[in-house]
Amino acid sequence: MSRWRLLSVVCVMLLAVVGWGVAFSEDVIKVGVMFSLTGTGAPTGKVQKDGALLAIKEVNEAGGIKIGDKVYKVEAVVRDDETKPDVAVRRVREFVEEGIRLMVLGTFAHVTTAVNEQILDGSAMVIASNSIEEKVFRKENKAPYFLTSQGAVDAIGRMTAEYVIKTFNPKYVIACLPDYAYGHGVAVGLKQVYEKHPDIKLEFIWTPVGTPDFTSYILKIIESKPDVVQMGQWGTDAIEILKQSYELGLSKHTKIFFNAIVASLAAGIPPEALDGVTLGMWLYHDLSILKDKDPATYENAERIRKAWMEEYNDVPDVMAAYAYMAMKELLRGIQLAQSTDPAKVYQALMENPEFMGFKGPAWWRPDGRPFYKYAYFIGIGKGADKRADKWDYAEIIEAFETEALCLPLEEMGYK
Amino acid sequence: MSLLTTSGLTKRFGGLVAVNSVDLRIEENETLGVIGPNGSGKTTLFNLLSGFFPPTAGRIFFQGRDVTHLSPEERVKMGMVRTFQLVSVFNSLKVWENLVPCVAWKSGMYHSLWRFMTTPAASTWADSIEALKLVGLEGQAEAVAGELSYGDRRLLEIALALSLRPKLLLLDEPFSGLSDVEIAKVLALLKSLKGKITIGIIEHKISMIVDFVDRLCVMNEGHIICEGNPSEVLANPLVNECYWGKQETLERAGVSGV
Amino acid sequence: MIYAIMYGLTVGAVLYLISVGFSLTFGTMRVINFAHTITYTLGAYLLIASIRSLGVPFFWGGAVGVAVAALAGYGIERFVIRRLYGESLDYTFIATYAVFLIGVDIVKWLWGVFPKPVSDPLGKTVDILGFVFPTYRLLVILLAIVVFFGLELFMRKTMVGKIIVAALDNREGVRCLGIGVEKYFSLAFVLGSALAALGGVLYAPITAVHPYMGSHILLLCFAVVLTGGLGNLRGTFLASFALGMLISITGRYWPAGSEIVAFIAMAAVLLARPIEA
Amino acid sequence: MGNVVKERGLVLEKTFVAMGKQLTQAGVGQKVLELILIGVVFLILVPFLGAHRATDFAIFCIIVLSFDLLYGYMGRLSFGHLLYVGVGAYTVGLALRYLTTNPLLAIVLGVVAACLAGMAVGAITVRIAGAAFALANLAFNRVGWFLVMSPLKDITGGENGLSIRNLSFWYVNFRNPTFRFWFVLASLLLVFLLLRIFTSSSYGVLLRSIKEDEKRVRFLGYNTQLYKWVTFVLAATVAGFGGALTALNYGYVNPNTLDVHANAGIVFACLLGGSGRLYGALLGGIIYMLITNLLPVYFQRWEFFLGVALLLIVFRFRGGIWGGLEALYSGLAARAKSGSSKEGMSR
What is the least distance, in Å, from the CA of A297 to any CA of chain D? Predict the structure, then answer.
């Protein structure tokens, strides 16, 4: 019967195909890098990857990592999580199986959350470079060697709410948030702050992810006439809702506060739609606002920005900057621990928690999050006429220092 | 009692009346020929009888039971089996595999889904070969049906129909597209069946079936205009007129010795 | 509420422009054309490219986009669809999906993964009975209606149109006529592609332009075409506006369900009227 | 007279030979051998890919096999097949969270749930033909996805998915990669055996008949709606089993398991290997996983590659890889045969 010979032929072919994928080893330290290089997260994932690679390049150019008497170069093993949690989990398993137990990853919150679950057994150390729901960092949920260079999405809610209340002194606020993990995390943070101000009316409008048209939601906002609307869409949804808000003249009725914007998204929004919108951001590439106030931070940020310009002829996107910081910290951990063992590297970072990040002095908390001196930056969107170059989409008006960045450790279940 | 009767059977397609109030009757074990020019409604009539589509009006009785609204498969189960004008067999299957669904049913497997799903198809091999022997295709059992000649596929289709143990076999232009040699083969097969089962046969060319059928029905424009034994029918001037046109003659039809 | 209806109409208009080509292709050639969404995406990107590099105004850019996308549509028809003519549905399905994948990657390669900004070319609003509407949206709705009547006229008055209509009705019958129907079908295909590109061009200022923009609208397109009846041009017109309205109004009262109602409506229609084709 | 007897004898002999061939083809011994061989193929994969990848591959193969029954054998292309994978996966996830600590029981529940979902949806969609069938299923899949994402978010975890922490019970320990591998491999072999029996039965022939011409099958006395429904439910059930294994394999369920876009991957795998052939489905599953797992590592433009490969399949290699190999083999066999007969003549 032909089936038999066929099967054996197939076996041989499979072996040939598979054999091609077998890896080899050298005098290098391999670290895993995984972002969403395809799928909906692709715009962010690409710059994140660039960020992580730049950090590795800097360390290698400075001589690599010295463990004992031996000097190791760092090599990134880059993978694509396709913006899918299951693919991410699969890739992490592959990393671990290939002996790569230190990684920097994370474009989308749910993807990173899934990875945290996967490494609960301590099989790997992960520094995520995106923000995740705060509950992941609670003691009972957090994987032993899991960190993030950015923070919790809940913090976005707390910080922006604090700023909005302080600055605009509103009586009626609508939070227009996307109906998925990211939006719900932000909502948790918002509620935590607004609960302390019972005189302010807070309402939520949830928008589905990837809806073709936001007009019905925007109209609802216009009709409700709030003092401030806090928007928190992400990805292309952010572009659409800002475009359509401009088109419908929302800003004539209501102050628009956009919770979190990054350069890769801002690039997709026509300048007129950003003009005059108050923008919250984790970070901005140009920190000249700190030039006099905090020269050390400014110079550090400038250094990174210049290195970035040289390497990629572009400004560092927020997400990219966090990936850069995550990788820098991971490599610092290896150097300190003199080992690539996840437990030791994690331990080393926790014992020497202070570092200088893109956005100022910071220290690692036991819940795996850094506390940055400057939690948040506030900018005003610039119209086409005010822009100096294509990256210049906002004017920074404040570097926001607040304790709201992280909940107290006791509340997170530590100590 | 007749095996099959229809009363006032009518089918309209939009404005067109394809079959118009037809009262047809087929007796047990007779061979009935339905003839008529193209577009006279023969195939539509067969489609109605076999349940291809529901009639606009009228009723169909089979063995005294009203089958007007039964589905094709239920009619097949009662013993009404048909073939198609364009040979319709499963070209991608092997010849013997074509017969598997038919003979699997015969062997009673049909009544137990589980048995049907788990018994190897090969177990029906002997029955399939048996059915193929009837039409003389047993030597090509392992060939792929699509590679047979058109005539052999026609034979295969008849084998399919016969393996369903029909009480009434409706043949829709079984000779169309066949070569003379193939026609002879099919005709011989049909002759061997004559008298054993009831056969309804549509044919465009009267000459093919005239010496073989017991009775002829002539259709024109959806009506049955004449019926009776072949010689009566062919002698009927009305038939001549509608069928051949006025200038045509019976000799033209190649009917000799009538 | 008036506004919700109004914006439902915009969504409907865009859905119509994209779906009609889809419906046309299916009705004539029995091809479920996944590649349709890539011409849609291409239309939007070419618009941007021509505004940026040629410096032409929006509407000329749009014309360039539609023209080039139509050309691409012809290419797809000539090299993929025509070779699969009369084949099983699945293969054309899969082949056009392949074209879609390749197209997305080419778009990413040419223009990058970052979303592109497109500004509203008019930027004015109109005041009707105290309700303020952006002019651009009115224009989109108007264009969809013009396209609808244009198509109706085209189908009724021209030879090509008549053949296409006949083909929609009974494909085999038309083929029996012995005319080179393939030629006319390919025209229908190009026409469909051009309309999809027009949809992309018109929607660009309202939505975000990114390489995967087509794959999202595609699902809604399926819903529209199936609700309206495959190959039924008027049904497609009605279905797009009905579903657009449904999406817009549901979005107002039950935001999470706004998109899914389209699919529920489609399932309901299919239940009531199964398609045997 | 003697001639006739001789002829009859010849026919009979031929009949018996062919019959024997048919019977051994479907015989128990051969099936066991086939299963062993498939097991060996996966075992060979382990050292190259790692047990976890081999496990992923095997699960994917189960899903592709279930799809092949529907598409390859019965010729009904569905774009909503992942719904059942998702139902199986979520049922396991929810059962282990709220109902039981026994993963085996959870698998049973998952399979039953997928079966029920298949019964309900199938009852509606099998009435629909052609492209509309594919799209109607897609609509149902989309509705399922929506249910998980939005109205049932509180129990399914929405976008974040659902982590399963009860993975070990008695000897059954899904935390252990080796156990996972063996369990999944055994499941694959079970599914394969089952489908092998189904497809080589009269029912299997009926399915292929329906694929070619459903109307004709009705005129053979078969209620095709019933058989289409049965097949649909069967495919859904097996897919649900695959989904249940996915959930246990990752210890995690997320809405991606029923993402309609991922359906294309299954269709592709099915075609790549060769649709309508169980071995084709297995081969397609493995090769698709190899492509999607390894290609992105070396090659950024994997979407492009996938597109080109699909076009090639559609235009050049309809039978997929397995079909191609079969053709190659029969070609070689024919050549060898004609060669040997020539030799015989020259001698």
Answer: 35
